[in-house]
Design a protein that fits this description.
- There is one protein chain.
- This protein has one helix at residues 54-62, and strands at 4-10, 15-18, 24-38, 41-52, 68-81, 87-102.
- By secondary structure, the chain is mostly beta strands.
- The chain has a five-stranded mixed beta barrel with strand order 1-3-4-6-5.
């Protein structure tokens, strides 16, 4: 079984590209701190992720640098020969499911009226309840309504 689940922060806005067939691909990198320190410094892994199809368009449209996200997918090892003739390996996660866990403060998306950048009103949700702020589910926000998600 090849199943990977990661939680980390996006290091940059996702990049969206389309193949000539019309298939979308979106790429990003997730920063994840390790559970230990080396020389009293936090050790961080930067893990490349790929999202395909309609979900790639959603990823590129509704996710930005600094967002805390969860991804679930499979580990892929790409092999190639570099310009010097050396064999190289490149690890990445091909995402099957993704979830936005929160939006960082100060990124210009706080509208001050209980709505996120999409205009979705979150003022009556658990996100404003201080007793549930430690619960990741309570920090979920929607970019678009569930009925509008094409997958």
């Amino acid at each position: 079984m090849n199943l990977v689940t990661l939680i980390g922060r996006l290091t940059a806005d996702p990049e969206l590209k389309f193949f000539s067939s019309g298939t979308a691909i979106s790429k990003g990198t997730i920063a994840i701190d390790r559970s230990y320190k080396k020389d009293n410094q936090t050790v961080t892994d930067f893990i490349p992720v790929e999202v395909w199809g309609k979900q790639a368009e959603y990823f590129a449209t509704c996710f930005q640098k600094g967002y805390l996200i969860a991804v679930s997918g499979s580990l892929h090892i790409d092999r190639y020969v570099d310009s010097d003739g050396n064999n190289r390996n490149f690890a990445k996660i091909v995402v099957h499911k993704l979830m936005r866990l929160n939006i960082p403060k100060g990124n210009g998306l706080d509208t001050g009226n209980g709505a996120d950048a999409s205009g979705v009103d979150n003022s009556n949700t658990a996100t404003n309840n201080t007793s549930t702020t430690n619960d990741p589910q309570a920090n979920l926000t929607a970019c678009i309504d569930d009925e509008e998600i094409p997958f």
